[in-house]
Design a protein that fits this description.
- The complex is a heterodimer of chains A (147) and B (544).
- Chain A contains five helices and five strands, in the order βαβαβαβαβα.
- Chain A has 147 residues and is an alpha/beta fold.
- In chain A, helix 1 links the parallel strand 1 and strand 2.
- With 544 residues, chain B is of the alpha+beta class.
- Chain B has 15 helices and 17 strands.
- In chain B, the strands form four sheets. In chain B, strands 2-1-5-4-3 form a five-stranded antiparallel sheet, sandwiched between helices. A five-stranded antiparallel sheet of chain B has the order 7-6-10-9-8, with helices on both faces.
- The chains are: A alpha/beta (147), B alpha+beta (544).
């Protein structure tokens, strides 16, 4: 009865993509993950533009967003999403290597819903990704967004 | 005196060399005489004239000589005897004037001597020179000299102006001293008389001229002169201060600018002291004006330097932040990948890996983890250095308890006896001081791990101008000869196999304590435990 929506993973590093997908799989969250490799693609996906013109409508349940990316970085993506009425209800989890304060502060100021520092230890990373599932589960209790 | 004519005598002295000059005189007198007495009494009259002029020559108050063409003094008077301390007999016809002249002036005077005889107009008639007396003294002498008309002889009068010169010199020195004294004055006192809340009379001390360029007379003739010279931006406050004083309200010293009479801007400090009569009514105030221009200049220079320094610190901090961020992100990412793939390898292919292979992978994973911790610790350390302090009045017991809770959670199952004394209140940064306690307690717990019965004591007491805190344990201790290494970054006294750690904890403790203005040190003996101390200064903001 529940329509499991997709997860949007915005990550430029293919190794990080692979490991994140593995971690999601460990937590049974790997189905319907869409991967885009920078902020430009992320916005095209979310707005159904460019090569995502024909994708089925609807927002992802959660966005996993890397901060350091080429072209448009993660901070910029958070800013754009959170100032767009059609997108701002999507939970955004900032996933990054950096635990440096300016990044942390900035992404929260811009309205990111969570900030996960990718731990060096892979087991810890799997744990961290598990928490992402909370948002994924939560979405089913939120009022239906306008499509 | 009274011996006039003794040597030269009266009568004809034609061609008698020593009296050459007198012959000239006689010649002139003769002309005069012949004009007046053309008769037979001419000779007689001449004699009388000669006596007259001789008397004048000898009795004039000025030393006078006649000098012939060859520089020899042919005639000298009594005053010249007194000046030179030679007798006429010793001089006349025997001494050259050059013998009386100091070396430095001689060439110049010889030139004048010649010039006078070749081109009389061009020669100087009056100048000063150094005159040598018989006893070798040098006198300042003003010489007045001219040729006797139609001769090559000259008549010279010499005025001893040594005393005058000395007086002038003394005066000059005294003036110079006064000027220096006046120039060194930077403070002066003025006083204001007040009647019914109004200033009625102001007297400025003499130093006002040096400070402001205006004399006390200027001040008394121009009303409100002082206020006029106050720098425009500060006129309002100076006026406010004045009004307060006129109404008997004391005011603190005021530093402001004035425009000096010469147009330059000076900084002054004005200190006011009110004066009251017997009934306590204000009758005026005394003020002390100090020129603080130099000090202000130095202050402004210091401010500029500080601002530049601060700007540089901001730039450096930004660079450091960029560096930390890059280290944090760029170094951790590859480590994470290594860890991830090793983990997947072990997990996905458990059966295809021999034991040795699994061991290698576990070693790789270990090193990766360790490097991750090192990077995190280093970043943490750099963060505590950059972090701005938020100091407040703190109950150290609470700060300590928070750290203790974390330690006890990490050491459940350990048998540790905690001996905790009440700690004084301090002024400091809550989070940073908690980190200090956390690091010290964590060390104490770690290095007592091999004890069957661990005991950790905590205390704090006041000594002189600081609080001293300590954490004492009965753990493995260390050799004091390495104690200076303890607080260095990544310095360790134990192997990682014995006791894990990166060696950043105590470096953080030291850095935080230093930021608070305190000190750190430790005392220990191998296997006899260790005591770590840190101090915090007692601030004025703290309540006693």
């Amino acid at each position: 009865m529940i329509d499991l929506k997709s997860i949007l993973l915005v990550e430029d590093n293919p190794k990080d993509v692979e490991l994140t997908l593995e971690a999601l799989a460990e937590n049974n969250l790997a189905n319907r993950v869409t991967v885009v490799k920078d902020g430009v693609e992320a916005m095209e996906y979310l707005r159904c533009e460019g090569k995502y013109k024909l994708r089925s409508q609807g927002n992802p349940a959660v966005i996993l967003l890397d901060i350091k990316m080429p072209r448009v970085d993660g901070i910029e993506v958070v800013r754009t999403i959170k100032s767009d009425p059609a997108l701002k209800t999507i939970p955004v989890v900032v996933l990054t290597s950096s635990r440096e304060e300016p990044d942390l502060k900035k992404s929260y100021e811009l309205g990111a819903n969570a900030y996960v520092v990718k731990p060096v230890d892979f087991q810890d990373f799997i744990e961290a990704v598990k928490h992402v599932g909370v948002f994924w589960a939560l979405i089913n209790e939120l009022p239906p967004e306008r499509v | 005196m009274g011996q006039e004519g003794n040597s030269s005598g009266k009568g004809k002295r034609k061609k008698s060399k020593p009296a050459n000059g007198l012959n000239v005189l006689r010649g002139r007198i003769k002309d005069l005489g012949s004009a007046e007495n053309s008769g037979k009494h001419a000779e007689e009259a001449l004699q009388e004239s000669e006596d007259l002029y001789r008397a004048i020559f000898n009795n004039t108050g000025t030393a006078t000589v006649l000098i012939d063409e060859n520089t020899v003094i042919s005639l000298a008077n009594t005053e010249f005897e007194k000046l030179s301390k030679y007798s006429k007999q010793e001089i006349e016809g025997k001494k050259s004037w050059t013998e009386f002249v100091v070396k430095e002036d001689l060439e110049r005077m010889k030139a004048q001597h010649l010039l006078r005889r070749e081109n009389q107009e061009a020669a100087l008639n009056q100048y000063e020179f150094g005159f040598i007396t018989r006893d070798g003294n040098v006198r300042n002498v003003l010489l007045t000299i001219d040729l006797i008309p139609s001769t090559k002889e000259s008549v010279a009068s010499l005025l001893d102006i040594t005393n005058r010169r000395q007086a002038e010199e003394a005066l000059r020195r005294s003036e110079q001293r006064n000027r220096q004294l006046l120039e060194s004055i930077t403070d002066y006192i003025y006083s204001v008389e007040i009647q019914n809340g109004c200033p009625v009379k102001t007297v400025h001390g003499p130093g006002c001229e040096k400070v402001s360029g205006y004399t006390p007379a200027d001040y008394s003739s121009v009303p409100k002169l002082w206020l006029q010279m106050v720098y425009p931006d500060e006129q309002k406050i100076v006026e406010q201060y004045g009004n307060a004083l006129y109404n008997g309200k004391g005011v603190p010293a005021l530093e402001h600018r004035i425009i000096h009479k010469n147009g330059s801007i000076r900084w002054v400090r004005n200190t006011y002291v009110l004066k009251y009569d017997a009934d306590g009514k204000v009758i005026g105030y005394d003020g002390l004006i100090s020129d603080i221009t130099e000090r202000k200049r130095a202050e402004i220079e210091i401010q500029t330097l500080n601002a530049e320094l601060e700007q540089r610190v901001i730039e450096r901090t930004a660079q450091l932040e960029a560096f930390s961020s890059s280290v944090s992100h760029d170094l951790r990412a590859p480590l994470r990948h290594m860890s991830g793939y090793v983990d997947l390898l072990v997990k996905r292919f458990p059966d295809s890996l021999p034991e040795k292979g699994k061991h290698y992978l576990s070693a790789i994973a270990d090193s990766v983890r360790q490097m991750g911790v090192l990077i995190d610790d280093l970043l943490e350390f750099s963060r505590t250095g950059r972090q701005e302090m938020r100091q407040t009045d703190l109950d150290m017991n609470n700060v300590f308890q928070e750290a203790l809770d974390l330690i006890q959670r990490d050491n459940t199952g350990r048998n540790i006896e905690w001996v905790i004394a009440a700690l004084p209140r301090v002024f400091g940064d809550h989070a940073l001081l908690r980190l200090v306690w956390f690091n010290l307690l964590s060390n104490a717990a770690k290095f007592t791990r091999t004890n069957e019965k661990a005991k950790i004591e905590i205390g704090g007491y006041k000594e002189k101008k600081e609080y001293i805190f300590f954490v004492r344990d009965n753990g493995v201790g260390f050799d004091m000869q390495y104690s200076q290494k303890l607080f260095g970054v990544f310095q360790r006294l134990h192997s990682t196999e014995e006791f894990e750690g990166t060696g950043i904890g105590l470096a953080n403790v030291r850095r935080i304590v230093l930021k608070h203005g305190g000190r750190t040190w430790a005392e220990a003996k191998p296997d006899k435990g260790a005591t770590f101390y840190f101090t915090l200064p007692i601030h004025q903001e703290e309540k006693p």
